[in-house]
Design a protein that fits this description.
The protein has helices spanning about 1-10, 15-45, 50-60, 65-70, 70-75, 80-85, 90-105, 130-140, 160-165, 180-185, 200-215, 240-245, 255-270, 275-280, 290-310, 320-330, 340-355, and strands at about 115-120, 145-150, 190-195, 215, 225, 230-235, 280-285, 315-320, 365-370, 375-385. By secondary structure, it is an alpha/beta fold. It is extended and about 100 Å long. Strand 4 and strand 5 form a beta hairpin.
């Protein structure tokens, strides 16, 4: 309209007429589309169903919609199978965890306590943190529902205020506690407290209250509900002493499991008070990894890599020799399978990334990975899809 007025003022009547016609046409198109949209909205059924309600409640509580719309009974009954789709070995640990979760979901637990509380015992790199992450994905619908806290940062008494929030008048009062604020925002979550043995006794006292009452009062005086959380503590207490006695070589020793469990539990009781041990639903001991376990982890990493390459229509295949090479390179007696992630990135993902950026791999190509035993390195062969091979 402004351009029409300016053209008329300058006595450019031809341009003014053209602009006015374009303006009228635009208005007509807008009004026509608006009427069509209004008619569509009138024809839509105005029904408030379970999906709409679930979405609203999800916004209020943070409880995933998928959890509310699907049968949780089926999920809990098949928990072991769902975990093992993404997780290797530790069958005893997975079974013990699943059984405790089922007992809780069946209504046999104290209703005011958390859904579950566990202590994961075992050396580094055997899958304690990974199991907590997968459990949050299955039960809570997302790995973002994992609240992970490094308890080595809470080794001093003053650190309690960072956990539950500072009291009024103190620095950090407006920020809230790392634990209480995370659960207040997402009450349906898995709380992972790593290396619990490093926490100050005052922090343990707060934890005892949480496990007993299922709630905590933060620094601002708000009561935070933990009834819908799963609390997981991790520790490697007893594992160092066990390693010294076993004089193990390679991946795992062949000593009796019951004897090893007793040794670990004896060390645990020396360190933690009975008040904490008795409040836990289960104490789960993780086994040392075996060569075949680490190779299965390589399979999972390869599967995840292929999932990321789906959009490019590229599939990576790997020989058993190549998998074994990665498994051996990625296992460390002190750190378990933790180095495997870096080894897989260095020997597999980095070369594939370079080939993608250089244009050597195109969409719908396949990629075979084999081992050059003489050079002790992986070989990559690009090929066409099976249907196009000669």
């Amino acid at each position: 309209e402004k351009e029409v007025e300016e053209s008329a003022t300058l006595e450019n009547y031809e341009q003014a007429a053209r602009l006015k016609a374009e303006l009228e046409e635009t208005r007509n198109r807008y009004e026509t589309r608006y009427l069509e949209w209004k008619k569509e909205q009138e024809n839509k059924p105005k029904v408030v169903n379970e999906f709409v309600i679930a979405q609203i409640v999800e916004k209020w509580t943070g409880i995933p919609t998928t959890r509310m719309l699907h049968s949780e009974r089926e999920k809990v009954l098949n928990l072991e199978a769902m975990i093992h789709q993404k997780y290797v070995n530790q069958v005893e640990a997975v079974n013990a965890l699943s059984q405790s979760i089922r007992r809780s979901k069946a209504g046999l637990k104290d209703p005011k306590r958390p859904t579950g509380s566990f202590l994961f015992l075992g050396p580094s790199g055997v899958g304690k943190t990974e199991l907590a992450k997968i459990l949050s994905e299955i039960l809570c619908g997302s790995s973002e529902a994992l609240v992970r806290i490094d308890m080595s940062e809470y080794s001093e008494k003053i650190a309690v205020s960072r956990l539950i929030g500072a009291s009024p008048g103190y620095v950090g009062y407006d920020e809230g506690g790392q634990l209480t604020e995370a659960v207040r925002r997402r009450p349906f979550s898995v709380v992972l407290m790593d290396e619990i043995e490093k926490a100050h006794p005052e922090v343990i006292h707060i934890l005892l209250q949480l496990l007993e009452d299922g709630q905590l009062t933060d620094g601002q005086g708000h009561t935070v509900d933990f009834k819908n959380t799963v609390i997981i503590l991790t520790s490697n207490i007893g594992t160092e002493e066990l390693a010294k006695r076993q004089h193990r070589v390679g991946f795992a020793a062949d000593s009796e499991e019951l004897e090893k469990d007793k040794m670990v539990m004896d060390e645990l009781k020396k360190f933690f008070k009975p008040e904490l041990i008795n409040r836990l639903d289960n104490i789960i001991i993780f086994r040392n990894l075996k060569p075949e376990d680490v190779q299965k982890i390589v399979d999972l990493m390869l599967e995840r890599l292929n999932e990321r390459l789906v959009d490019k229509h590229i599939k990576v295949e790997m020989t058993e020799q190549a998998k074994r090479f990665l498994a051996e390179k990625g296992f460390d007696e002190s750190f378990g399978a933790r180095p495997l992630r870096r080894v897989f990135e260095k020997h597999v993902e980095v070369p594939i990334s370079d080939m993608l950026l250089e244009g050597k791999i195109e969409e719908n190509n396949g990629l075979s990975v084999d081992l050059d035993e003489e050079e002790e390195k992986l070989l990559f062969q690009i090929h066409q899809p099976d249907a196009e091979r000669v």
